[in-house]
Amino acid sequence: MRKVLVTGFEPFGGERVNPSWEVVKKLQDVQLSGVSLAVRQLPCVFGKAISALNLAIDEVDPLMVICVGQAGGRVDFSIERVAINIDDARIADNDGQQPVDQPIVAEGPAAYFAQLPIKALVNGLREAGIPASVSQTAGTYVCNHVMYGLLHRMARGDSNVMKGGFIHVPYLPEQAALHPGSASMSEHTLLEALELTIAIALHTEKDLSVAEGATH
């Protein structure tokens, strides 16, 4: 049976949990839409995160890779459109690194677009009653770093990965309780959203042509 690799991150920035991993770890060995799911936790560390992702790709040999990360302050399930070739860290990573204006890949392209049907995903999630949107920025921290690393490897063509991208998720309720005014999403809803995302992405070859842009 072919496999899909799903990754989440360890906690960072003083948080005790990371919602991406709390949800992703529940998918280990789950069979869904004709594939078996494999999961890995990535370190929230520049450089090491891409190395861990590449090792997981080599071990699992997936046809699709979905990377998931925390975006405290986001209000919905955010499907990322683009990764840019820059590390510019507002806070240090879990190894104390804080790169500023450093390329992820020297001489690499300025950006890569997600290799997922991002608008079909958002439409399907909304139809299921799950708040979702296309995000125009994955930031410049380790999440963007990993997304760019994934898409750069796909562009090189040295794996069997055909589809791949990144999703940002809000805080869990117990995290939001410590950040008054922040939105949250339950583990149950996040898990439902992620399973639906995988199913739609696997079976959608042509994305929807609908407006999901931003004016600012």
Descriptive notes:
With 216 residues, the protein is an alpha/beta fold. The chain has a single domain (3-203), classed as 3-Layer(aba) Sandwich (Aminopeptidase). The chain has 6 helices and 9 strands. It has helices spanning 19-24, 48-60, 118-127, 142-156, 173-176, 187-203; strands spanning 3-9, 31-32, 35-42, 64-70, 77-80, 82-84, 111-113, 132-135, 163-169. The strands form 2 sheets. The chain has a 7-stranded mixed sheet, sandwiched between helices. The chain has a two-stranded antiparallel ribbon with strand order 6-7. Helix 3 (118-127) crosses helix 6 (187-203). The longest helix is centred in the C-terminal third of the chain and has 17 residues, at 187-203. The chain is globular, with a radius of gyration of 16 Å. Its EC number is 3.4.19.3. It comes from Rouxiella badensis.
What's the structural blueprint in terms of helices and strands?
Blueprint: E1 3-9, H1 19-24, E2 31-32, E3 35-42, H2 48-60, E4 64-70, E5 77-80, E6 82-84, E7 111-113, H3 118-127, E8 132-135, H4 142-156, E9 163-169, H5 173-176, H6 187-203
Parallel strand pairs: 1-3, 1-4, 4-9, 5-8
Antiparallel strand pairs: 2-3, 5-9, 6-7
Helix pairs in contact: 2-4, 3-6
The CATH topology label is Aminopeptidase
Low-confidence stretches: none
Query: What is the class in the CATH system?
Result: Alpha Beta
Order of helices and strands: EHEEHEEEEHEHEHH
CATH superfamily: Peptidase C15, pyroglutamyl peptidase I-like
Our estimate of the beta-strand percent is: 15-25%
Question: SS-based structural class?
Answer: alpha/beta
- By CATH, the architecture is named 3-Layer(aba) Sandwich
Side by side, the strands of the main sheet go: 2-3-1-4-9-5-8
Catalytic activity: Release of an N-terminal pyroglutamyl group from a polypeptide, the second amino acid generally not being Pro
Keywords: Cytoplasm, Hydrolase, Protease, Thiol protease
Pfam families: Peptidase_C15
Active site: 80, 143, 168
